[in-house]
Amino acid sequence: MSVAEAGLALADPTAYADDDRLHRALDLLRREAPVRWVTPPGYHPFWAVTRHADVREVERRGDVFLSAPRPMLAPARTVAPGTGGGKKELLRPLAHLDDPEHRVMRAVTASRFTPQAVAALRPRIRDLARRAVDRMARRQGEVCEFVSEVADVYALDVLLVLLGLDDAEAATVGRFTPAARRSMAPEQRTAAMREFYTYFLALTADRRAHPRDDLASVIANARVEGRLLDDHEVLSQFVIILMAGHDTASVTVAGGLRALIENPGQLSALRDGAARLPDAVEEMIRWVTPVKAFMRTAREDHTVGGVLIRAGEAVLLSYPSANRDESVFPDPHRFDVCRTPNRQLAFGYGVHHCLGASLARLEIEEFFAELLPRLVSATLAGAPVQLTTTFSGGLKFFPVRCVLKG
């Protein structure tokens, strides 16, 4: 593989479904061209930033590197340079915003993601984790497609609790999650988004009339400069809750279990107490890195890794690469549940650090805290399949055969 080919891999969705190919490309870029100009066919060009320190530098300088107009890598036909697209972007989740708007909109839900607020959710999430593992136990020794039958359902259950919805809403809300939308044809996705608008605007109206102690009520009744959020702002808040709140936990739980099955010594270290579960959770997050890349655009000339980025040029922040950087993680391609310190960047850094990071950690930790004491054996029951993506993803098919106590 040449350096040029390695750079092109960052804009190839199939590369993210092939760990060996992806990490050969990223290793080569970090070693030989850590800030590399890439001109992939069908995309506007960008600087690929692959070292941990350089990704942190770009994230740290939110005043220089902006999310607008190109927060995510997308084909050129959908993102015109300097515009964000041919149409007005109706929904603008937090990840798409810059300060001061980002700071204002982040504050809308921040109270629900403080350490105290997240800790208060632990008993409910523990119950949901037990329910998920019970679901596995009922399939005792049978083949279980872990992503759709366990991980996605568990992550959705947590979202329902957060939003103040009951199990009867699971089928409806589940249609709006990234996992569900990926399996839809384009016309189905369009219909699902229309249904999303209708459902969450109705939920907002209900919570304004009858507020409760839940996140849906917080969003519905939030005020900015004395006014309630408009429809687009409300829907943008719900979009980021569904996008980040579902995928991060689901793909890390699935990827974490796969890593433990494929590294039985690491599983043993956790089960016999030689490793701490919080450290293992951090390693699972590093290993899976659910979000693959974000884009930033320089508002002024700035040097990154010794390379001058000109005003108006785009950069791609490669989180899987930063999380396997040899200068930060000894033996980075080894899954190590005892790894500490673990300076993984899967949740971003600086002003765009993931608001729900503490909640995601809690979800993952509670799932494995429930699973590991009951797990007698776990084996692959077929070849795992990863999503093709350039933004967010992990396993989409993961057949396992587990034997559990109780």
Summarize the structure in short:
This protein has 406 residues and is an alpha+beta fold.
Describe the overall structure:
Belongs to the cytochrome P450 family. Keywords: Heme, Iron, Metal-binding, Monooxygenase, Oxidoreductase. Pfam families: p450. With 406 residues, the chain is α+β, with helices and mostly antiparallel strands. It is 47% helix and 13% strand. The protein has helices at 3-9, 19-32, 52-60, 101-109, 115-120, 122-137, 146-163, 170-174, 178-182, 186-209, 215-221, 231-262, 264-271, 277-288, 319-322, 357-371; strands at 35-38, 46-49, 65-66, 143-145, 223-224, 227-228, 293-298, 302-304, 307-309, 314-318, 375-380, 385-386, 395-397, 399-404. Strands 1-2-10-7-3 form a five-stranded mixed β-sheet, with helices on both faces. The chain has a three-stranded antiparallel β-sheet with strand order 4-14-11. The chain has a two-stranded antiparallel ribbon with strand order 5-6. α7 (146-163) packs antiparallel against α12 and α12 (231-262) packs across α14.
